[in-house]
Every structure is written in structure tokens, then in C-alpha cells.
Amino acid sequence: MTVSGSQLTATKVEEKKYTLTAKAAGSAVITVKDAKGTTKQHTVAVTVPVAPLKLFVSSSTLQLGATGTAAIRVLSVQGGVAPYTATVSGNQLTLTQVNATQFQMTPKVKGTATITVRDSKGTTATQAITVQ
Q1: What is the number of structural domains in the chain?
Q2: Are residues 22 and 62 in the same domain?
Q3: Distance separating alpha carbons of residues 114 and 95, to the nearest angstrom
Q4: For the purposes of burial, counting CB atoms within 10 Å of the CB of 14, is it exposed (0-12), middle (13-18) or buried (19 or more)?
Q5: Element (H, E) at 116
Q6: Do residues 7 and 28 share a domain?
Q7: What is the DSSP string of 18-65?
Q8: Does residue 114 share a domain with residue 90?
């Protein structure tokens, strides 16, 4: 058995048995040859599961009036499918996107806000942030 394309790898586990592992989304052609030399080809669609969308914050509490490094708080995004957009409910803080997966949070007024991040497939994740 052979696999063409870089989407799949085939690992022989025993005689006439292989494990196929998805490496990238796309299509691959699997070719099998029997004992008589007859070959059969089959094209397969390869999908790779997307990791769940997760948010990580350097702190879920921001201090109003903090300066220097104490004022810098970052929300990081992992998983899902980039690009990401973020919105804030309320006026307690502002978000500035600093790179493809990070947003800087700046406190404005005391209270609690909810940040919602949406990936390109429409999946969302939320994070509550308190400004003190």
C-alpha cells in the first residue's frame, strides 16, 4: 500500500494492516496492490480536527490607574481557526490587537466586562474581566 500526497502517512502495523494518520486537510490517493499485481486506487478526503477555541489571560482583574507592567494585561487566543475578532460588552476596558493571537486589555472604568472572541468559522469563547 502507498499513499500519495502529504496529507496522510501510512504505518504498517502487521501484514496487510496499516494505520493512516492525517497530517493536513486535503485529499490523498491510496494505492493498494494485491498478490496478482492488480492495483486499485482510491481518493480520500482528509480532514483534521480543529482544536477548541480557548482564551487565556495574564490576569482576569485589571487595576484602574495602574502604570508600567502592572497596567499591561494580555488576552491570548488558542485553537479555533484564525483570524480572530474580539468584542467587549460594556465600557470597562478597551482591546487592542497586538498580533494574530493576542489582545492588550486597557482598563477604563470600574466594573465587569465580558470579552467575546470569534474565529473565522464563527466559533466563540468568552472571558469575564473585572476592573477595580
Answers
A1: 2
A2: no
A3: 11
A4: exposed
A5: strand 111-118
A6: yes
A7: EEEEE-SSEEEEEEEE-TTS-EEEEEEEE--PPPPPEEEES-SEE-TT
A8: yes
Residue 2 CA to residue 4 CA, distance in Å, equals 7
* Residue 6, phi then psi, degrees to nearest 5: -95, 5
pLDDT tens by residue, the chain, 132 residues: 888 888 888 898 998 899 998 888 888 999 998 889 999 999 999 988 889 999 999 889 988 887 766 677 899 999 999 999 999 998 999 999 999 999 999 899 999 999 999 999 999 999 999 999
Q: In this structure, are strands 124-131 and 61-62 parallel, antiparallel, or unpaired?
A: parallel
Residues forming beta bridges with residue 109, ordered by sequence position: none
Q: Kindly state whether residues 73 and 10 are assigned to the same domain.
A: no
Residue 35 belongs to what domain range? 2-46
